[in-house]
Amino acid sequence: MTMIFGIPLMVLFGQLMLGLINGAFYALLSLGLAVIFGLLRIINFAHGAQYMLGAFAALLGAQYLGLNYWAALILVPLVVGALGIVVERLLLRRIQHLDHLYGLLLTFGLALIFEGTLVNLFGVSGSSYPIPEALSGGFKLGFMFLPTYRAWVLVAALVVCFAVWFLIERTRLGAYLRAGTENPELVQAFGINVPLMVSLTYGLGVALAAFAGVLAAPLYPVSPTMGSNLLIVVFAVVVIGGMGSILGAILTGLAMGVIEGLTKVFYPEAANTVIFVVMVMVLMLRPAGLFGKEA
Amino acid sequence: MATALEKTTTTDGAAVSPASEEQLCLRDLNAWYGESHVLHGVNMTVRRGELVTLLGRNGAGRSSTLRAIMNMVGRRSGEILIKGQDSMGLAPHRIAHLGVGFCPEERGIFSSLTVEENLLLPPMVKGKGRQKEDGARSGDETCGMSLDEIYALFPNLHERRNSQGTRLSGGEQQMLALARILRTGADLLLLDEITEGLAPVINQKLGEVLMMLKARGMTIVLVEQNFRFAAPLADRHYLMEHGSIQEEITAAELPARHAYLHRVLGV
C-alpha cells in the first residue's frame, strides 16, 4: 500500500476529500455571511439557524409534501430566502441606524427562536435524509473511493460560489452592491433603490445558507442544532478571509476545510482547533484578514 | 436686490421663462441633523438653464441645503418643488429619478470600482431625454452623455479607465465625480465644492465644463467657496449665513457688490 509520511494514500485522500466537502460548506456559508456583512454591516448570527432551516425544510418537504431533492434544492433557498427578506424588512431595518452590536444581538435571538421552536417540535436527535437515487454510489479512483454525492456537493458548492462571485465582481448589479457597501447613501442619491437592494442582499445570503442546508441534509443528521455547531467555525473562516471579502470567504472556506482534513490525518487531537489557531495567527499578523482591506 | 422672479435673462442672454420653468423651488426649508437645526427657512428658486451659486462661509448651510434637497439629512420641513413636483415625501433614489444629479463635496469615488465602473454606476435617470414643452422628445442635448463623449471631455479618465477610482489624483477624482452624473441624463445638477483643494488649471477645466453644460441647457446649483471660480459662471448668487439665505445677487449686480462679498466671505 502506498504511504505518504507513514499515512496510507487512501486515508490521506479520503480525509482530503472530507476536508474539501467541509470546506465547500464553509465557503457557501461564509460567502453568505460576507455578502450580508458587506452591505448591511450586520454579523448575522442567525446564519447557522438559516442553514439548519434549509435542511429541515428539505426534510419536512420530503416527509409531508413529497418534495424530492432536486425540487428542494431550488425551492427551499427561495422560501427560506423570502423568510430572510421578511426578517430584514420587519426587524433588521428597524435597527439599521443603531450600533452593529444590536444587529448581532437580534440575529442571535432569532437563531435561538428558530432552534428552540424546532427543538420543541422535533427534539434534538437528528433525522436522516436520503441521498437521491441519481447521486448514490461512487467512483473507484484507484487511490480512493469517491462517493458520488460528495463529489456533487463539491461541484454544486463551487458552481454556486463562482456564480455569486461573478454576480458581485463582474456585473452591474454587483457594482451596485460593492458601491453600496462603501457609501449606501450616495448610491441611493444616484437613483438606486438601496433599501430594496439591502432586502434582496439579505435574502441572497440567507438563500445561500439554505442551499448549503439542503446540500448537507443527506450527509449529516438533520437536527435543530446542526447550524449552531457549524456557525462558530464559519465565523472563524470569515475572520481569516477578511470580513466582507467575497473571494476571501470562498478561498478561505475551502482552504480551512482542507487544513482541517489534513490535521485529522496527521494530528487528530488538533483537528477541532486548527482553524481557530489560524484565526488567531491571522488576527495577530493581518487583522483585516487575508483578503480584507487594511483600514 | 433683485428677486428671482424679476430676472428674465441669463448671463448668456438666453431667455428665461417665468415660474413654469422653475426647476427647483425651496420654500421655508428647515433641516435638522439629529437635534441640530441646520437650515432655518431657506427660500430659493432656480430656473431652467440657470447656474446659481450658494455662497457663504463654512457652516453657513450651503452643503446642507443640497443634502436636504436630496433628502439626505435627518429631518426636514417646508416645501421642495423639483420641476414643479413636490419631492418632500420622496426617497433619495426617487428624487434622482426626477432628473437630479448630485455631486457630493467628498466626491464619493468608490474604491472597489474602476474608473469606468464608477462612471457606469449611476443608472440613467432620464434616459430618453426630457420632454420638450411641445411634448416631443428632445435630442442629444438632454440625454445623458455617452462614455465616448465623457472620455472626449476628460481624456485623463479614458487613459485611466481601468484604474481603481481612488488611485486617481484629486483633480481626476473630481472630474470623475462630475462626469459620473453627466452620463445619467440628469438635467438639474447639484454640485458641492467641486474645486476644493484643486490646482488652478483643473479649476479652469471644470469651469469650461460647467459653461458647456450650461450651454446645453442644464440647470446647475453650485456650492462654492472659491468665489473667483464661481463669479464669472453664475447667473445669480445666493448668500447664505446661519442656515438661511441672506441675500440674492444677480450677475449684473455683482461688480458693485464685490467689496461687500469679499468682506462677508472672507476672501
TrEMBL record, chain A:
GO molecular function: transmembrane transporter activity
Family per similarity comment: Belongs to the binding-protein-dependent transport system permease family. LivHM subfamily.
Protein name: Branched-chain amino acid ABC transporter permease
Any GO CC annotation of this UniProt entry: plasma membrane
Segments passing through the bilayer: 12-37, 49-66, 72-92, 104-129, 149-168, 200-220, 232-258, 270-289
InterPro entries listed in its UniProt record: ABC_transp_permease (IPR001851), BCAA_transport_permease (IPR052157)
Protein location: Cell inner membrane
Organism whose genome encodes this protein: Cobetia crustatorum
Keywords: Amino-acid transport, Cell membrane, Membrane, Transmembrane, Transmembrane helix, Transport
A GO BP entry: amino acid transport
Topological type in the membrane: Multi-pass membrane protein
Keyword Transport found: yes
Automatic annotation (TrEMBL), chain B:
Pfam families the UniProt entry points to: ABC_tran (PF00005)
Record keyword Flavoprotein present: no
UniProt entry tagged with the keyword Nucleotide-binding: yes
Keywords: Amino-acid transport, ATP-binding, Nucleotide-binding, Transport
GO biological processes: L-amino acid transport
UniProt GO molecular function: ATP binding; ATP hydrolysis activity; branched-chain amino acid transmembrane transporter activity
Domain ABC transporter, residue spans: 24-267
Record-linked InterPro entries: AAA+_ATPase, ABC_transporter-like_ATP-bd, ABC_transporter-like_CS, BCAA_Transport_ATP-bd_LivF, P-loop_NTPase
Membership in a protein family: Belongs to the ABC transporter superfamily.
Protein name (Swiss-Prot/TrEMBL): ABC transporter ATP-binding protein
The organism of origin for this protein: Cobetia crustatorum
Lineage: Bacteria, Pseudomonadati, Pseudomonadota, Gammaproteobacteria, Oceanospirillales
